Amino acid sequence: MQKQRNIKFKWRLMQVGLSTLALAALAPVATSYAVDSWGPERPTYTMKKPADHPTFNSITDNNVIGDERDFVRVAEKGGKKWLNEVKIVPGKTYQVFIFYHNNAASNLNEGGKGYAQKAKIRSSFPTKVNSSAKGKVSATISSTTTTPKEVYDVAFFTTDSKADVSLEYVLGSAIIYNQGKLNGTVLSRELFSTGDYIGFNKLSGVLPGCSEYSGHIIYEVKAKQASSKSSKSVSLDGKNFFSSVTAKPGDTVTYKISFSNTGSETLNDVTFRDALPKGVTFVSGSIKLYNDATKSTRSLTDALVKNGVNTGKWGKGVSGTITYQVKVDKDIVKDGDCGTNLFKNTVRTTTNETGSATSTATIKVEKTCEEPPKDPCLNEDGTVKTECCDQEKYKDLPQCKEEPDPCLNEDGTVKTECCDQEKYKDLPQCSEKPDPCLNEDGSVKTECCDQEKYKDLPQCKEPDPCLNDDGSVKTECCDKEEYKDLPQCKKDEPKPTPYLPNTGPGEIALAIVAAFCVVTGVTYWYRSQKEVAEVQKEVKHGNGEHKQ
């Protein structure tokens, strides 16, 4: 439900949004925004030549804001100029300006032809902004009777902070300004969801054409950033604190937790939990909280070093310290733990707004141990000296148990002079001696060919005098028994006399037919020859005349 503020605004001041902003604050800013920040593309008009139909924010020479397509702008509250981009700082408040104008000519208002029906404005703003990305502020003006049906524009919030800066709507700050009865009316939160209706005298969604019915909306957002800083340190004298100190068993040391609210918002349920290392004993009742803002000190319960203690709210910029003592146990370092021993103490700080963070301080305890005397039987590399291998504690060591075998070479092969020993004689290198009858290439030496095992080898047999170099048998040897049956030694045999094959009844019949055909052919040939002779005789006697 909308409510109306009991404040009267003159149109002169309404044109600039707030009395704190000069008229120049809304002067045309043609070079301060990106061309593609508004949309959609649409026909444009001028103040002298307005539109012949309902349309929003399409005049390019408005004497208040210049190009109406750039109708969303932002500024720091109390600033001097509306811009398309503003850098925000945590803790400050910023304003969003949205201008609206039905550009239909005034003469179209008769009969409602120039009216924008169901006119709404919907807006959004970023809830978080950081240095890696701009935060977009947008507004959309829509109507069922305008062309186009809706128009939009954007502006931007930026920040130098790497951590998120949150933006929160200032409740009740969205106000509509115009020359009608709606001037100073607070809009509902529907402005940021489905959109809120606009109008002239009431939020009916009906807006006539012409600049006298135009107006604007301004709402506020606050930039917030919750952040904190904590650290842990330790001291031997309670005055000079460091991240680590060197203590002795029996010393009393002081731990300090430092905490600051470095953000723009109050931090709630600020809780500290300190985990003590083994080897130190907490001094009960020694916990003190000092508030730098109030310069006051109060005691905290021993829960700090157990389940944790809640210190409540810490306002913006508030800082303080917590101190307490522990005693270093006399047996903090165990036997054999020679050298520097580290004992770390970690505190976990938690707030509703920033979550948890940890920090650490360290106690160092030194312990010097006497080094045992060096064993004279050991070399520098830890091996046993040869002359000590007969001692009871060393004799069973591998290096003392096995003496080198004098029959073995360094590569593990058996020396030749040891091959006759029982344990080596069966080894391949001892059992296999080179054959004196074989050459290096494995062939048999000539003088060994008369030995039984070599005499049948091809290289030991004498060449056959009956064979040629190519292995064929010489002609004069073909009559010898071992060669006479070879193909090359066999003589040509006489060919058998051909004979007619025996014939049956079928073959005889065929022979008779064939003979008959031959006799008939001869008879016809003889008769033809006789007739030819008679014709030649007639021609000769008749002087070449042919008588019919």
Order of secondary-structure elements: EHEEEEEEEEEEEEEEEEEEEEEEEHHH
Class from secondary-structure proportions: mainly beta
**Number of H- or I-type helical stretches:** 4
| Global mean pLDDT | 83
Shape: flat
Helix content: under 10%
From the N-terminal CA to the C-terminal CA, the straight-line distance is: 150 Å
Question: Which features characterize this protein?
Answer:
eight-stranded antiparallel sheet; 26% strand; flat; six-stranded antiparallel sheet; disordered N terminus; 548 residues; mainly beta; single chain; 24 strands
Describe this structure in words.
It is built from 4 helices and 24 strands. 24% of the residues are buried. 9% of the residues lie in helices and 26% in strands. The strands form 4 sheets. Strands 1, 2, 4, 6, 9, 10, 11 and 13 form an 8-stranded antiparallel beta sheet that branches. With 548 residues, the protein is mainly beta. The radius of gyration is 62 Å and the shape is flat. The chain starts with a strand and ends in a 7-residue tail after the last helix.
Could you give the topology of this structure?
Layout: E1 3-4, H1 11-14, E2 72-76, E3 85-87, E4 93-100, E5 120-124, E6 128-129, E7 135-142, E8 150-158, E9 165-169, E10 175-178, E11 185-186, E12 196-197, E13 215-224, E14 228-235, E15 244-247, E16 252-261, E17 271-275, E18 280-282, E19 288-291, E20 296-299, E21 309-310, E22 319-328, E23 339-351, E24 355-367, H2 398-401, H3 428-431, H4 505-541
Parallel strand pairs: 3-8, 15-24
Antiparallel strand pairs: 1-11, 2-4, 4-13, 5-7, 5-12, 6-9, 7-8, 9-13, 10-11, 10-13, 14-16, 16-22, 17-21, 17-23, 18-22, 19-20, 19-22, 23-24
